[in-house]
Amino acid sequence: MSALQLAALARTTEPQTALRRFLALDAVVTGANGVAYLVAAGPLGRLLGVDSALPAVLGAVLAAYAAAVGVLAARPRPAALPVRAVIEANLAWAVLSLLALALWLAPSTAGAVWGVLQALAVAGFAALQYAALRARQGSSA
After folding, report:
1. Which residue ranges traverse the bilayer (predicted)?
2. Running DSSP on this structure, what letter comes out for residue 49?
3. CB 93 within 8 Å of CB 121
4. Residues 128, 10: contact at Cβ < 8 Å?
């Protein structure tokens, strides 16, 4: 997703709407990733250079997480505490992904590139969600 597309998603005078959109985008992208990992664990494991059990387990976790984030995004005014939990989970995922690449996994080149790219994307979701939450809190003060 390009910066221009993200700007279009955020274009609203309502910080609440931007927050819900960024949560929904997170849910859709994470859910699609989770389903892909579940459906194609073997081929993706081979492409990424990891045992196929890893994408399968991650796929289940990501699908469940995406469903929870989707439920949160569907609320008219998502509560700040669960939104903060999503932001923190996203940041933890990004950090743990990079640590796993550096310390535990020995992926293929494609796997290493994918690992870094998805960590950056997830950190990006956290940053967008954090900015939207702060804007919402600022507009309600």
Report:
1. 21-40, 52-73, 85-106, 112-133
2. T
3. no
4. yes
What is the full per-residue pLDDT of the chain (141 aa) written as tens digits? 555 555 555 566 688 999 999 999 999 999 999 999 999 999 999 999 999 999 999 999 999 999 999 999 999 999 999 999 999 999 999 999 999 999 999 999 999 999 999 999 999 999 999 999 999 888 764
- The answer to whether 66 and 72 have CB atoms below 8 angstroms apart is no
Of 63, 114, 122, 69, which Cα lies nearest the Cα of 95?
122
Supply the pTM of this predicted model: 0.88
Question: Which whole-number Å values give the CA distances from 92 to 54, 67, 99, 126, in the listed order?
Answer: 18, 18, 10, 10
Report the run of H or E that residue 105 belongs to, with start and end: none
- How far is CA 21 from each of CA 113, 125, 132, rounded to the nearest angstrom? 27, 11, 10
Give the separation between CA 61 and CA 51, rounded to whole angstroms: 16
Q: Distance between CA 105 and CA 103 in Å, rounded? A: 6
Q: CA 37: distance to chain centroid?
A: 14
